[in-house]
Amino acid sequence: MKPVKVGVCGLGTVGSGTVNVLLRNAGILKARTGREIQLTQIGARRPNPACDTTGIDVTTDIFEVAANPEIDIVVELIGGYDVALQLVKTAIENGKHVVTANKALIAEHGNEIFTLAREKNVIVAYEAGVAGGIPAIKALREGLVANRISWLAGIINGTGNFILTEMKDRGSPFADVLKEAQELGYAEADPTFDVEGIDAAHKLAILAANAFGTPLMFDKTYTEGISRVTPDDLRYAQELGYRIKHLGIARQREGGVELRVHPTLIPESHLLASVNGVMNSVLVQGDAVGQTMYYGPGAGSEPTASAVVADIADIARLVDAPSAAVPPLPYSAGTTEVAALPIGDVVAASYLRMRVKDHPGVLMRVTEALGQYGINIDALLQKEKREIAGAADIVLLTHEIKESVLMSAIQAIEALDDITGKVAHIRVEHLD
Ligand SMILES: NC(=O)C1=CN([C@@H]2O[C@H](COP(=O)(O)OP(=O)(O)OC[C@H]3O[C@@H](n4cnc5c(N)ncnc54)[C@H](O)[C@@H]3O)[C@@H](O)[C@H]2O)C=CC1
Ligand SMILES: N[C@@H](CC=O)C(=O)O
Ligand code: NA
Fold it and tell me: Family, per the entry (predicted)?
């Protein structure tokens, strides 16, 4: 059988890892797929010393790769939107299968890309874009195909989890840890995507589309990042028996789906609470299997390349299959429109932290304000702030309450004379 020919565009962190894995493991890939997978051409602005491209045709024009009649699979690893979209569409128009790690592109332009791919009868695969090296899309699409999925939740941004872990364990300042994550190749070109939750929202939109068979709904995903989580929050959560993790949560509800990305307190005994550093994890609730959980590196050169090459191998097995054998919407969203529920309708327990003037009766006034809205308190800490004369922090865990009601109660608390500044609010989930 003739080799399956691959063109890789972009030779940065993931591109160089992909070249290394394809070359190093060519023998086992051939044995496992029954086909030789040949790295035929690379599109790169400049060489990358992290990989050896000796003997491979390298061009500075990535569109040459997309037009190369020899090539069966174009691998998009340049990142970003405009040029990447153009490249992917050109490759599809030219009848090539596409593998990409670009979750931003898939989350925001996937509906258009998949429509075009369907017309041209080619596969667009994006396993590397969601939870890095974890075969999360494959688990949903194949391993859990028998299940009706009611919800999933995951730690799906490696940089964010790395920052929260280092802040908690070593007390490292946010900016220093972010710099380290960038040096390790974990962060996005624009790291605000990581710290403000946009990257996790891209991934959640893709996971939800696969789990629920809906179109991609990134624009309807409620998104909060980790930038407002303070070292005090991490410490107080720990004292209360919780950890703060940045979670993406997708849940089927009557009337629509919840799609939300935000810092979350989870019990320290929950398995997700032990997912640290750059590791990611996705927890899925299916009606037949119950809960399954997937764990592994969410970012980095070869962990991400592992998923890119897995997609290449899957396509290699199918390139010569009759079109009927190629899964119709292979790695993609379905088409059933569904409503995204507003965040105000979410019912969750909450962590509230407020800076108060340490006057007698202040705690009573806060609990009264909550009581007026029917909000019960589950746990409470009051911490004197030694470094600020006359100030204390009150930290509360509330029972489950509709978020729109909680917001009204928070406004009432912030209006009290004893409260300085804003009330910090982090949702609590038990995920059972
Ligand atoms: N770094 C990671 O751990 C992960 C990254 N990703 C995704 O993989 C993609 C690539 O990310 P990285 O490798 O980290 O980025 P990177 O910045 O290290 O690499 C991108 C490379 O593409 C090249 N490039 C950009 N435009 C080009 C053009 N027009 N022509 C030729 N070369 C061009 C750049 O020069 C650079 O070498 C992104 O979509 C990212 O979101 C996904 C999962 C993990
Ligand atoms: N910046 C992303 C890279 C992988 O998707 C992350 O940190 O998770
Ligand atoms: Na993955």
Answer: Belongs to the homoserine dehydrogenase family.
- Which atom in ligand 2 lies closest to the alpha carbon of residue 299? 4
Active site residue 138: no
Query: What's the complex ipTM?
Result: 0.99
Residues annotated in a binding site for L-homoserine: 188
Q: Report d(CA 169, CA 183) in Å as an integer.
A: 20
* Domain 344-428: top CATH class: alpha beta
Task: Look up the CATH number of domain 4-132+302-325.
Answer: 3.40.50.720
| CA–CA distance, 103 with 282 (Å, rounded to integer) | 16
Q: What is the pTM of this model?
A: 0.97
Residue 395: what are its φ and ψ, rounded to 5°? -125, 130
**Under CATH, what is the fold of the domain 144-295?**
Dihydrodipicolinate Reductase; domain 2 (3.30.360)
pLDDT per residue over 78-132, tens digit each?
A: 999 999 999 999 999 999 999 999 999 999 999 899 989 988 989 999 999 999 9
Known binding residues for NADP(+): 9-16
Ligand 2 atom closest to residue 194's alpha carbon, by position in its atom list: 1
Helices (H), 144-197: 158-170, 174-183, 192-195
